[in-house]
Amino acid sequence: MMTPTRRSLMKLGAAAAGLAPASALAAQAPDRRLGYAIVGLGGYADVILPRFAECRHSRVTALVSGSPEKARRYAERYGVPERGLYTYETFDSIRDNPDVDIVYVVLPNGMHHEYTLRAAAAGKHVMCEKPMANTAAEAEEMIAACRAAGRKLMIGYRCHFEAANREAMRIARSGEIGRPRVVTAEHGFTIGDPAQWRLNRALAGGGSLMDIGIYSLQAARYLTGEEPVEVTAVEATDRSDPRFREVEDRINFQLRFPSGALANCVSSYGSNHNRFRVVGDKGWVDAEPATAYSGNRLRRLKDWRTEDHPVPEAPQNQFSAQLDHLSQCVMTGVEPIVAGEEGLRDMRIIKAIYLSAREHRAVSL
Ligand code: NAD
């Protein structure tokens, strides 16, 4: 087994793209705002749209919705001109709109693939929400399409831009808590209405793992800065519950990393969780809430005492930082820290988690 020194751990941390200082990229980008088209005006679009007000390099210039009335209402609120309003049917004509540089796909998971391909065909860069697609095969096609069109593809992994998560990554990968030995990451919520798309296999691609458990998977990967080599998983789903006729409820999984670090991950549609902890051989850091939209909090074990750990001041909130990151990458020709390949890695691991749960065996990656 590899035994990394503090120096090699620090090198690993610095090499991990997630820790690149965002300010350097911002300084290189011209003082311009790229135009975003938001596709799908649902719950998460409502979280994203107000955040353009705090962006330095991004603005919203188009909206795509099935409801023209809703699109007009949002256009008025966010200052989008009439010529920037599209339906799903007229979406492809976005190619003729020079005010749109980036298409942000905020649709149900099962539609990410189609709209990313259509956006790339229209010559636009793409921000696509998590999970990247329903399957790894779709994710591969999305990467290929954007590459062939010479356009950037980024996945909406906002936690890479969130101050508490970035600080936890820094601590975990710097050697300050020694070698990470065990990560625990728990994400879940009690899901309601059985008729919603999140419980429809074609639109969601799967259950809690695709929607919320993916945060546990991401945390295990960005906290260790490593890629898992083996997974085991166990699922518990009551198929007589009308919510879980098509998708799984709870699926817990374990990951083994090359350094020997282990992760225990919870993914649940039947209970509320939002936390992680990295335990090294010299201490630990944890977060709860860990991946919320705001108010994430850190604690550490220091000298055998548990202490609150201050979250460093960040120049931007996670949403604006994420939007500006892609704009800056487009303007400077740099690859996003969470490009399509990052989404694809998760899709492949998710496939292995489902396989492990189904066949009751460890799956090598
Ligand atoms: P939502 O149900 O609130 O909104 C979905 C939107 O898609 C609606 O405007 C709906 O009208 C539209 N739509 C178009 N065709 C549809 C169809 N056939 N069925 C259902 N809706 C259709 O969902 P949401 O919570 O906004 O999630 C959208 C995406 O954003 C998902 O991929 C989700 O995983 C992701 N998301 C990410 C975060 C995050 O923190 N990064 C948070 C929430 C959601």
From TrEMBL:
Residues 1-26 form the signal peptide. Residues 166-285 form the GFO/IDH/MocA-like oxidoreductase domain. InterPro entries: Gfo/Idh/MocA-like_OxRdtase_N (IPR000683), Gfo/Idh/MocA_oxidrdct_glycsds (IPR050463), GFO_IDH_MocA-like_dom (IPR055170), Glc-Fru_OxRdtase_bac (IPR008354), NAD(P)-bd_dom_sf (IPR036291), TAT_signal (IPR006311). Residues 35-157 form the Gfo/Idh/MocA-like oxidoreductase N-terminal domain. The keyword Membrane does not apply. Keywords: Oxidoreductase, Signal. This is Glucose-fructose oxidoreductase. It comes from Brevundimonas intermedia. The lineage of its organism: Bacteria, Pseudomonadati, Pseudomonadota, Alphaproteobacteria, Caulobacterales.
